[in-house]
Write a structure and sequence with these properties.
The chain is of the alpha+beta class. The chain has 3 helices and 5 strands. Strands 1-2-3-4-5 form a 5-stranded antiparallel beta sheet. A hairpin with a 3-residue loop joins strand 2 and strand 3.
Length: 144
């Protein structure tokens, strides 16, 4: 397998952490409206909540934040910035931030629309809870 060049994917589609960070920077810069500002603000909150977070880019340019597993993705649509938490259904959400993808058994999402505020403290608590869940020991399966 060839070594990945900066800003390039390797044959298996992986992007180095440094390249992922630059690709996310470029994505934010390309969104010259409220979506770029929102994605940048969310990214800053994620980094504040978890300084050890790993930035990745998957699925044709979608920013992904991970720590011992996926925390959330940051998808941008015309009318919303969607933050999908991989294990959101298992996370405490006392502030009620989750407002999308509520019907599933695993994922939950936060759809942010233009001008909508995000409770920064509650969001950072959600990020920390996602990291804690990722780092928690997995229950041992019992055979029957």
């Amino acid at each position: 397998m060839k070594k990945a060049e900066p800003n390039m994917q390797s044959e298996d589609g992986a992007v180095s952490a440094e390249s992922a960070t630059r690709l996310i920077d470029a994505k934010i810069a390309s969104l010259a409206d409220w979506r770029g500002e929102t994605l940048a603000a969310v990214r800053a909150l994620i980094r504040q909540a978890d300084p050890d977070v790993v930035e990745e880019v998957k699925w044709r340019g979608v920013p992904v934040w991970s720590h011992a597993g996926m925390i959330c993705t940051g998808e941008t649509y015309q009318l919303a910035v969607k933050l999908t938490f991989a294990k959101g259904a298992a996370l405490p959400d006392p502030a009620g931030l989750f407002n999308a993808s509520l019907e599933g058994n695993t994922r939950r999402a936060i759809d942010l629309h233009e001008g909508e505020p995000l409770d920064a403290a509650a969001f950072k608590a959600l990020i920390r809870a996602a990291v804690a869940l990722n780092m928690a020991p997995k229950p041992k399966r019992t055979s029957t």
